[in-house]
Amino acid sequence: MKSLHRKPSGTSGKVLDLTPEIAGWSYVGFSLFKLNEGEAIKEFTDEKECILVLVEGKAKMLAGDHDFGEMGERLSVFEKKIPHALYIPRQKYWSANATTACTIAVCSAPDKGGYPIARIGPEGIQSSERGKGANKRFINNIAMEGRDVASSLLVTEVFTPNGNWSSYPSHRHDDDDFPNITYLEETYYHRLNPPQGFGFQRIYTEDGTLDESFAIQNGDLVLVPKGHHPCAAPYGYEMYYLNVMAGPLRKWRFKNDPDHDWIYKRDLL
């Protein structure tokens, strides 16, 4: 199996570039641009739909013949403000001209059609709290199932307080058996605060054929092709991650690890 843990290639430009071909799967793509003030980028979506997330900083955004002006509000992702985001369908050009230093995530998946270019954030993005105790985390649902804004993509942000667990109790979504469970490939783009921090993520199957654990550093990308995928932030460091999911059906249905399902049932996490 190809490496499930990817490091950024530098500190400016396109620092992460994952395609389905590179990942060895069929649906999810993810790239990340880090731009200095005054720098610009332009890309074409080909046959993909894309959701652009301004992770931090501001940029003037164009998509097709739509001029969205300056987008972005938070200068640090850990300000925890609602993100600005755009949906762009296949066969469209888009561009960004940075008005401050900025980080732009490009989440992509096959375009099944039917959705126009649209601004999908910050308006319409709901924030929520999930879990309790050392399993509490905070969610910005950018484009999850409850928002009819894309044909394939599911995108969300999660903030995990220091010392807490996330994507836990352990769960998987790797079978195409709706409504019981759906097959969804997934990526995690991680950030840590303070940035010299670290976190942990484990990816494993119940039969033990896959069992890998990673020490996550600021800016790392983790691929989840199958299996359970909990992560944790050590005391003193809070963790952010941007999730991208896609598969045959735009539905998020999962199953918990039966060894740990008792926690879910007891605490209704």
Can you tell me about this structure?
- This protein has 269 residues and is mainly β.
- It has one domain (5-267): Jelly Rolls (Sandwich), CATH 2.60.120.
- It is 4% helix and 50% strand.
- The chain has two helices and 25 strands.
- It has helices at residues 20-23, 261-267, and strands at 5-6, 13-18, 29-35, 40-44, 48-56, 59-63, 66-71, 84-88, 93-98, 102-110, 118-121, 126-130, 137-143, 154-160, 165-166, 171-172, 174-177, 181-183, 185-193, 198-204, 211-217, 221-224, 231-232, 238-246, 255-256.
- Strands 1-22-19-24-14-13-12 form a seven-stranded antiparallel beta sheet, with no helix packed on it.
- Strand 12 and strand 13 form a beta hairpin.
- The longest helix is centred in the C-terminal third of the chain and has 7 residues, at 261-267.
- It is globular.
- The model has no long low-confidence stretch (mean pLDDT 96).
Give a topology summary.
Layout: E1 5-6, E2 13-18, H1 20-23, E3 29-35, E4 40-44, E5 48-56, E6 59-63, E7 66-71, E8 84-88, E9 93-98, E10 102-110, E11 118-121, E12 126-130, E13 137-143, E14 154-160, E15 165-166, E16 171-172, E17 174-177, E18 181-183, E19 185-193, E20 198-204, E21 211-217, E22 221-224, E23 231-232, E24 238-246, E25 255-256, H2 261-267
Antiparallel strand pairs: 1-22, 2-3, 3-10, 4-9, 5-8, 5-10, 6-7, 6-9, 8-11, 12-13, 13-14, 14-24, 15-23, 16-25, 17-18, 19-22, 19-24, 20-21, 20-23
